[in-house]
From TrEMBL:
Native organism: Methylomonas rapida
Annotated SUPFAM superfamilies: EAL domain-like, Nucleotide cyclase
Entry's localization field: Cell membrane
Protein name per its UniProtKB record: EAL domain-containing protein
Keywords: Cell membrane, Membrane, Transmembrane, Transmembrane helix
PROSITE patterns the UniProt entry points to: EAL, GGDEF
Length: 629
């Protein structure tokens, strides 16, 4: 009968203990709070076991599963859990009284202490003990328990050992192993859930919340602000020229810098605000404040952005170097209206951040609705332009280039977009959008192809006309650019000596040796090169003498005021002097008055391009006019 009662008592403890992980999984507590709850739970379960004990005799000697629970409490929960649960059980056992009370209390603290000892063994050996180890742990705990029983008065301990020792060694160590395995299994599953949560919601480099967690937090913030009197704001920060450091020093140094930036930003972010890493060099800060008249959430966010900018002016240590960074910051408040969504907030703040970056960086900009219209227009133009490239909406225009006698010696090939609904669209409305995307490569390839075909037409046969084609840096940097030009010349039969490629000084910023190699390879075919917008970029004579160019093109901004602005006049005269010294031809853009043309002709042999001589016109119309010359 006593064996059956012992097994029933142990089974009750197993069932009660197994409920703990289920309850704990539904609670959102700190680790300390969880351990307090853990200790209370085990203490209460132990007391419940002692409320339905097995009475050995009428002298106050009882058996229950407290030794199992206390051993497991120490093994799984550590010192705090074991101490709390042991105190609860000890107080109750003292209250029960009887001659077995002192021994019972000693068993409580001894088994808890053994559990704590094995807790530290688990910490050193990887937290998990196998079934055999746990079974051995159970035998040790209950061997100690039986040894303590020997201190019962009137040789009661020997009687207990003789009558119940085998049963205790059969049931209690197995129960200890089973409960320990239950908790270890829960522990392992909980740890797995946390390595998954960490990967899903936290950035491995900076340990900050990632984009996913930020989005969930914005969702909650919007709901909170709609339900309560509060306002929210999102700050989006992108480091200026981070790619330069990454390319120059490598990704390892880039990672060190990102961690340093995260720490620096975190130092000025207020407690309760969320700092997250959105992507490579992009961070976000989420603010939620109670609604108030002054200052507004926009002002608070702007003040925080200013603190961040100031904090980043102090050098950051990257390996052995000190590096100073700046950032472009966008700010967007929410909710704008009852239908505001997280996607809306992210779009607004991204728009503001990109506006800050395009305006030179190292500044913060608060979103306003005019930006939204600009972005929508940008998106519409890019989408329609992509269709235009493949549906024949692009048209080739030519603008004449004439010598000082007014004779056409060449023309610049220009692209115009004939929209099916809006008619001809100015290049100023779409070229910069094409430059920001891959479309400029496709458009540049189309213009180059049309120009080469035009060179083979009957209208240019026997004429020494040179067609100039603008080449964007993106197009020029394509790995097979030179090979594609050779293929195009072979395919169309165009004479390369009548083709001129116009490049800007921006092309020379990166990988100048590769640029020069490509230019030399194409120049060997007879293709000429012109340096466009000369004087507006770096204008270094050091690189100018290395380039295989035959022509400098004076930007229209200098020609426009050459007769009224002494500075522009001096600059143009200097360019003409450099060109003469280096035996380079000069083309002046934007010649619109006789006074401008006379100024240029008086100072050098200049080719003129501008409205004074001709406007850009369709290639077919330009050929007709050329035939009349």
């Amino acid at each position: 009968m006593i064996i059956v009662e012992l097994i029933k008592n142990t089974a009750l403890l197993v069932a009660l203990a197994a409920m703990y992980p289920v309850m704990l999984a539904h609670l959102n507590k700190s680790l300390f709070s969880q351990r307090i709850l853990f200790g209370l739970m085990f203490g209460v379960v132990g007391v419940l076991g002692m409320m339905t004990p097995i009475h050995y005799d009428n002298d106050g000697i009882i058996f229950d599963g407290r030794s199992v629970l206390l051993a497991v409490a120490g093994l799984i929960g550590g010192p705090l859990v074991a101490t709390l649960s042991a105190l609860i059980m000890a107080v109750y056992r003292l209250w029960l009284g009887g001659i077995g009370a002192p021994v019972g209390i000693s068993v409580i603290f001894a088994t808890a202490a053994l559990g704590v000892m094995f807790y530290f063994i688990r910490q050193r050996t990887g937290h998990y003990l196998g079934p055999l180890s746990l079974l051995g742990f159970g035998f040790l705990v209950h061997g100690v328990m039986l040894a303590i029983f020997m201190f019962l008065p009137h040789y009661k301990g020997y009687q207990v050992f003789k009558e119940l020792g085998a049963t205790i060694f059969l049931v209690y160590p197995l129960a200890t192993m089973l409960i320990s395995l239950l908790f270890q299994d829960y522990e392992e599953r909980e740890k797995s859930r946390l390595n998954i949560e960490q990967l899903a919601y936290y950035d491995p480099l900076t340990a900050l919340p990632n984009r996913s967690l930020l989005i969930e937090s914005i969702d909650k913030a919007i709901s909170k602000c709609e339900a309560a009197q509060c306002d929210g704001a999102l700050i989006l920060l992108n480091l200026d020229r981070f790619k330069t450091l990454n390319d120059a020093r490598g990704h390892a140094s880039g990672d060190v810098l990102l961690r340093a930036v995260a720490e620096r930003i975190n130092s000025v972010v207020e407690a309760g605000d969320m700092l997250a890493r959105m992507s490579a060099d992009e961070f976000a800060i989420l603010l939620v404040r109670a609604k108030q008249n002054s200052p507004s959430i926009d002002v608070l966010a702007d003040q925080l952005a200013e603190k961040i900018q100031i904090a980043l002016t102090r050098p950051l240590r990257v390996d052995t170097e000190e590096i100073t960074v700046s950032s472009s910051i966008g700010i967007a408040s929410f909710p704008m209206d009852a239908d505001d969504t997280t996607g809306d907030v992210l779009r607004r703040v991204d728009t503001a951040m990109h506006r800050a970056k395009t305006e030179g960086g190292n500044q913060s900009i608060i979103f306003d609705h005019s930006m939204s219209k600009s972005v929508e227009n940008h998106f519409l133009i890019e989408r329609e332009l992509r269709q235009a490239v493949h549906s024949g909406q692009l048209k080739l225009f030519l603008q004449s280039q004439v010598n000082n006698a007014g004779v056409i010696v060449g023309a610049e090939a220009l692209v115009r977009w004939q929209h099916p609904e809006r008619g001809f669209i100015s290049p100023t409305a779409f070229i910069h959008i094409a430059e920001e995307s891959d479309l400029i490569i496709e458009i540049g390839r189309w213009v180059l192809t049309e120009a080469c075909r035009l060179l083979t037409c009957e209208g240019l046969a026997g004429r020494s006309i040179v067609l100039s084609v603008n080449i964007s840096p993106k197009q020029f940097r394509q790995p097979r650019f030179a090979a594609s030009i050779k293929h195009l010349l072979a395919e169309t039969g165009a004479d390369p000596t009548h083709l001129k490629l116009e490049v800007t000084e921006n092309l020379l910023i990166h990988n100048m040796n590769d640029v020069i190699a490509k230019m030399i390879e194409l120049a060997a075919l007879g293709i000429r090169f012109s340096l466009d917008d000369f004087g507006t970029g770096y204008s270094s004579l050091a690189y100018l003498k290395r380039l295989p160019i035959q022509e400098l093109k004076i930007d229209r901004s200098f020609v426009q005021d050459v007769t009224i602005n002494p500075d522009d006049a001096t600059l143009v005269e200097s360019i003409l002097a450099v060109a003469k010294h280096m035996k380079l031809q000069v083309v002046a853009e934007g010649v619109e008055t006789e006074e401008q043309a006379s100024f240029l002709n008086a100072r050098g042999d200049v080719i003129h391009q501008g409205y004074l001589f001709s406007k850009p016109e369709l290639a077919a119309d330009w050929l007709k006019r050329l035939a009349q010359q």
